[in-house]
Amino acid sequence: MGKKSRVKTQKSGSGASAVVSPKEMMNLISELLQKCSSAAPSAGKELEEYIQIRGLVEKIRKKQKGVSIVFEGSREDYFPELMSWAQESGASCDGFRVADFGTEGFGLQATRDIKAEELFLWIPRKMLMTVESAQNSILGPLYSQDRILQAMGNVTLALHLLCERANPASPWLPYIRSLPQEYDTPLYYQQDEVQLLLGTQAVQDVLSQYKNTARQYAYFYKLVQTHPAASKLPLKDSFTFDDYRWAVSSVMTRQNQIPTEDGSRVTLALIPLWDMCNHTNGLITTGYNLEDDRCECVALQDYKENEQIYIFYGTRSNAEFVIHNGFFFQDNAHDRVKIKLGVSKSERLYAMKAEVLARAGIPASCIFALHCNEPPISAQLLAFLRVFCMTEEELKDYLLGDRAINKIFTLGNSEYPVSWDNEIKLWTFLETRAALLLKTYRTTSEEDRSMLEKPDLSLHSRVAIQLRLAEKQILEKASASGRAKRLHFEKKLEEDAPLPQYEESDIALLENTDADAKLPIILRKLEEVEEGQEIPEEEHSPFLNGGKAVYGMDMQANVDPVQEETQEKVSKDVNSALDSIEGSNATQKGQREEANLSASRTEENPKENSE
Q: Which carries the bigger pLDDT value, residue 179 or residue 592?
């Protein structure tokens, strides 16, 4: 086992640089804070801003070279201490050990046969690093007076981690020593590796993540040096950008939500030992047992002795895995590409379309997703596209016609088209939109595959290329699926096939044969919580398991809600729009609506470190 003493050294450098005066450093920090706090750049200028911010950060890093506190020896030297501490603290340690799994990194290896659903791992609260433990630590006085810390649990955990790392008597030192010294999150990418992500869905979040992290670092550097409540923090003598980048990445890749001790609300936590588990497809098998006050994990499947034990991190896309976890998951069953779609407010039929969508619980402007599996669109997106492509007469029928309320139930069900012409329109749009999005990439799928064959690619470059190739494959599949559906419904129209009819008594039993739309859209909470602001993100609510209150858990990334329009904004003028229908010019009924749909591949808000 390696030495446990701390040394002031920097892995990436050889020796410290010349002493920098506090005034010189503070001037650089102020310049960085000002640059990161300026107005958002105009469209297309985000990379330019990133390069400027990165240049300032590199100046600061160069002057801080050799100052960061790290531990001697390799990470694995401290695993025995981690296991001993866990056992002494009341955690379970008899069914597994920490092992090296090559390209997957370190993980948990079964030391005996473990049955599926067997409780094999539990971690008591006293081992966890939480926002509450930060409040009760040396960071508490500053936390009580700083609004940023109070509002951002992930930032609080990052500073908590740094303060405890610098404390020789910290009870969490066995855990902190076992953490990686560096990560593969985009915060660690070189500039040319970040540029490989240009054109991908992830790039805006990557650039925002770097900017926000730099802004936070500059803010807290100044705060630590000047605020009276920070006078006793160990960070006052040593707080480098590399320190903060490490702490942010540690939290970003490991944080989770657990209940507070009284179970009244949730809080963010780092969960030692459990966070050693690697990800695979499956279901959430970890919860929080309030009665025994501990995190519990049951086996996802049967594991033989010496096999790696996996958990499921949640239904994340590969873009989310790359940004928040630092890896690309090749067989991701939940991979998807997000697109933003909206009905133009300048469209003549906007109020009618918005009202039909509102009755189905869908905003008129929304973030949707194209999925890697079949069907490529969710029930919610199907409903949106059907409404968007409706003619004036079809909208009128769904608002005022016979059984209009009941018809809303069928919008997300693929078995009950509005009309053959409507289906042709929506699948034509999907085919065309996916094909257009493919043209925004700087390389083709074939070129990406060729690049991945190069043996000298860096890990980060490989991950970036894998991500953009995966996005293209989803778009290619969506375009092909749109074409196939379009041809299918054109044939139905040509054959004058009768539209499938539903009986009013069958409304509650409507089931889409597609895997993601088992119930009428307004009777269920959609699985894709990203799709539609009106559908709230599911909290980690308690449920009963063996008579004990348990909180379901997965590896969390801080997700900021996407700002969308409310239903009330469009309801106020729908009546006047309906009244004017009868007097509208009949020649307008055949006008095409497709051109009014604005679409882009985007995530509106950065998911990490957003202030």
A: 179
Nearest to 261 by CA among 117, 68, 132, 367: 132
Which uninterrupted H or E stretch holds 269?
strand 266-270
Cα gap 540→509, rounded to integer Å: 28
Beta bridge partners of 294: 124, 289
Distance in angstroms (rounded) separating the CA atoms of residues 246 and 179: 10
Q: Which helix (H) or strand (E) holds 281?
A: none
Q: Where are the alpha helices (DSSP H) in 178-315?
A: 191-195, 203-226, 241-254
Question: 71: which 2 tokens?
Answer: 């531990």
The set of residues, in sequence order, having a beta carbon less than 8 Å from that of 130 and lying 6+ positions away, is 157, 258, 267, 268, 269, 270
Question: By the 8 A CB rule, do 556 and 257 touch?
Answer: yes
> Which of 243-269 are b and which e, b meaning 16 or more Cβ less than 10 Å from the residue's Cβ?
bbbbbbbbbbbbbbbbbeeeeeebbbb
Count of residues for the chain? 611
Residue 205 half-sphere exposure toward CB, CA atoms < 13 A: 24
Backbone region of residue 89 per phi and psi (left: phi > 0; alpha: psi in -120 to 50; beta: other values): alpha
Chain centroid to Cα 455, Å, comes to 30
Residue with structure tokens 């539990």?
Answer: 122
In the block, residue with structure tokens 């003598």: 237
Phi and psi at 408, nearest 5°, equal -55, -35
Model pTM score:
0.81
pLDDT score for 115: 97
Segment 222-265, tens digit of pLDDT: 999 999 999 999 998 889 999 999 999 999 999 999 999 888 89
Strand partners, 69: 8
